[in-house]
Specification:
The protein has two domains: 103 residues, Aspartate Aminotransferase, domain 2 (3-Layer(aba) Sandwich); 96 residues, Alpha-Beta Complex (Aspartate Aminotransferase, domain 1), CATH 3.90.1150. The relative contact order is 0.12. It has six helices and nine strands, in the order βααββαββαββαββα. Strand 6 and strand 7 form a beta hairpin. It is an alpha+beta fold and 219 residues long. Keywords: Lyase, Pyridoxal phosphate. Belongs to the group II decarboxylase family. Sphingosine-1-phosphate lyase subfamily.
């Protein structure tokens, strides 16, 4: 590190995908401790690790860096209080469920799920990219695919797909919508249904020529 500034990698969303993408046949550039400047990595196990919500991990390059995570209060009336996390105590139930899930899938299981999820994300990106009226905001490297439009208010498409049962996420600056592909989307027929519903909604929007303004709100 030229300036000796610690570099944290926030892999909370896709950490359990990017860690297995090379083995799944979708190589990525190094993002982890293979890079000498990376000092810590965070990853939510409850996302693509498929564990119950409420668990996450943070990794440090060495034990010396980890020492700075601990929090201690020496003058608390109840005695010296120390905790390895900001949140304090954690349920043993969540830790046990997290461990059991990791053991259930194992490396082979996570590689298998990663392969399916990444392939579906790319299939969706390819399909959306062929629909006249919308365009990709980016070429997805992992599981998130986002689109926008130069021909209509993209939030009309958001509403139209929501009415058809799709729960996508709205974006702003620039306006758009995105899908984070999960295990559920890898089931047979799901991609084709999403693409067909998108085509129908776009056609209806272009025909209606609606001009009403809308915004997106993250809840």
């Amino acid at each position: 590190m030229e300036y000796e500034v610690p570099l944290h990698v926030d892999a909370c969303l896709g950490g359990f995908l990017i860690a297995f993408m090379d083995q799944a046949g979708f190589p990525l550039k190094p993002f982890d401790f293979r890079l000498p400047s990376v000092t810590s990595i965070s990853c939510d196990t409850h996302k693509y690790g498929f564990t119950p919500k409420g668990t996450s991990v943070i990794l440090y390059r060495n034990s010396e860096l980890r020492l700075h995570q601990f929090f201690a209060v020496a003058d608390w009336p109840g005695g010296i209080y120390g905790s390895p996390t900001v949140a304090g105590s954690r349920s043993g139930y969540l830790i046990a469920c997290c461990w059991a899930t990791l053991m259930y899938y194992g490396i082979e299981g996570y590689v298998k799920e990663t392969r399916k999820i990444i392939q579906v994300a790319r299939d969706i990106a390819d399909g959306w990219n062929k629909i006249d009226g919308v365009y990709l905001l980016h070429q997805p490297d992992v599981s998130v695919v986002a689109i926008s439009s130069n021909k209509f208010n993209i939030y009309y498409l958001f509403d139209g797909l929501h009415a058809k049962g799709w729960h996508l996420i709205g974006l702003q600056n620039p306006p758009g919508i995105h899908i984070a592909v999960t295990q559920m989307h890898t089931q047979p027929g799901i991609v084709d249904k999403l693409l067909e519903d998108t085509r129908q909604c776009v056609e209806e929007i272009l025909k209606s020529n609606t001009k009403k303004d809308t915004i997106t709100v993250y809840v």
